[in-house]
Amino acid sequence: MGASGFRERWTREQAEDPGEFARMVEAIRADADESIPPPPDLVHQTTLWFVDDGVEWLGRLAIRHTLTPPLLELGGHIGYCVRPSARRRGHATQMLHQSLPIAARLGIDPALVTCDADNDASRKVILAAGGEQEDERHGKLRFWVATHTS
Questions:
Q1: Phi, psi at residue 54, to the nearest 5°?
Q2: Measured between alpha carbons, how far is 90 from 116 in angstroms, rounded to an integer?
């Protein structure tokens, strides 16, 4: 898919190959490039990787620049995941907290953040970021989080 990006799937083996890794980074950057029109039903997103001491990958976070009707219903502006072996150490809380000023610079305020209704850990992460629960829809809790801290 090259520079067009837009959610190309990558395997671990591809990411370990320097040429493929460079292509993956280029595609992820293209996903955020507002000058490249996204395919139907997709939106621009900024992807952030979180690493420990610049070496160990801990997780990733995606900030969707706009919301389609399905994202407004269930997906939200910000989605994140932490590598299973790095969970329960506060990384998700830090990731979400650090992403809010970036979302604000993208013109998002407040940000919609969702999680499964039975995901207590993610619910606590969102609440720690100042999330205010609006409702539950289709098994998803929906929270609005201010991105401007002034």
A1: 70, 10
A2: 19
Which residue matches tokens 């940000």? 111
Residues spanned by the domain of 14? 1-40
| Mean pLDDT score of the chain | 91
Bridging pattern class, strands 56-64 and 111-116: unpaired
84 and 100 assigned to the same domain: yes
Angle at CA of residue 63, ends 112 and 60, nearest 5°: 115
- pLDDT tens-digit readout, 48-86: 999 998 788 899 999 999 999 999 999 999 999 999 999
* Count of structural domains within the chain: 2
Do 115 and 150 touch, CB atoms closer than 8 A? no
